[in-house]
Amino acid sequence: xxxxxxxxxxxxxxxxxxxxxxxxxxxxxxxxxxxxxxxxxxxxxxxxxxxxxxxxxxxxxxxxxxxxxxxxxxxxxxxxxxxxxxxxxxxxxxxxxxxxxxxxxxxxxxxxxxxxxxxxxxxxxxxxxxxxxxxxxxxxxxxxxxxxxxxxxxxxxxxxxxxxxxxxxxxxxxxxxxxxxxxxxxxxxxxxxxxxxxxxxxxxxxx
Length: 207
Description:
Helix content is 50%, strand content 12%. With 207 residues, the chain is α/β, with parallel strands linked by helices.
């Protein structure tokens, strides 16, 4: 009798802004690994026709909708940044839905392990749903430089985002593996491949 394949274990992948976590995730995906992005899940739960969008519109009014009925993220962001009470209301609505979206998506994985990519893996407590944590780390000056180039943003804005994300020490404290991404893309991909081969030898994310 054939034994059914064991369920994929979950690797949490995180890193600060401009650390290269998206590039790392893309390479894992290219190697055939099922990747779920928490940011995408957060966008899906508020798409047109989803119950969450109706609740948001009911609570905040038409000002948070665009003319076509889609969510006006800028307007919503402005409302919740100026009012912590409203931000908590929104988080209470969305966090369980995002968790469910992520879980459903991870459950579809057919690869030996699956990856949950989340910039807030540590802060949101999402790491508790994973069996292992990989942190993509980069020197802060390099994070800053990459983000300024990529997002066409100001240094102050990047500083603000760095402050809001878990401190580097906090992230590293939760890490089972750390990939220092301070060279070029080729070097990052080589490291991802090395980790991938190591992960294939693990059962349930542990050696």
